[in-house]
Predict the 3D structure of the following.
Amino acid sequence: MPERVLVRDRKASVKSAGSGSPVVRVLAGCALIVSATLSCALVNIGGTEYRRIGGAAGGPVWLPDGQSVAFWRIDEQFLSRVWIVDFKTPEHPLVATGGPLVQQKTPEPSPDGQWLYVMGCDTDPPLCDFELWRVKVAGSDAGRVAEKVPVVPPSGHTAIVEKLHDVRRDGRLLVEYFTQSLTTGEHRVLLAALDPTTGEIRDLPVFGLSPRWSPDMTQIAYVCSQICVAPVDGGPPRVMVPKDPTAYEEGLSWSPDGRFILARAAGGLHLIDVRQGTATPLTFGGALWEPSWRPR
């Protein structure tokens, strides 16, 4: 059965990627798009199927069941809100108006599919400082229950989470946070693994754009102008296609088996073989961004 991809669309034409191309499921969108002419779409990498779903979308992610997608956008009232679509029913907001969070963005699902982690706030604009929350996404109380995720600063430092990037298979969050020394005033922005139960932060020896855990949790892929992969426990990063001068933009996704990375190059989507260090341009990917591989 052919697999499909979700893509953000700028009225792009879809052409075949060739019968020898791997067939995968991905989701792609574009951050902060509010125009109704832009959308997510379900696409077969072989180029045999293309279907728009939902409206303008940013940061789209599959829920673990592989049947629903979460994304966010800025609405007509200039509020950031997360939406859910399952391909069978119209999109609906994660949190209804009057719910526990006024604004939400950058959703990432928990491994069990019960929660969506978001950057959110529970106060009306302009007094809205985005913090790390989780919102129930399954069951009768979906969208009605929201809990602030604890963040425990390292000893002698502050810690303010600025971005949520990913959720690991064991439930740890990949976050970008601002920290400042309480004694010297020195400050830095770091990537870290955050335990959402205890709030414990463990700094990671890597920094780059669009970081994502590998499926086996041993590596992090990120945009370093090129695409780089670094071991979680330290060590030099590996440039995936070192002889290729192609520049890459934000947005990437691992295949479920960890063999491939789908990333947005300057001219379109590229499928990168992690073992071989090769990149295959996808011929339909010229106007598509922010891929996210469909879970098995």
Remarks:
- The chain has no helices and 25 strands.
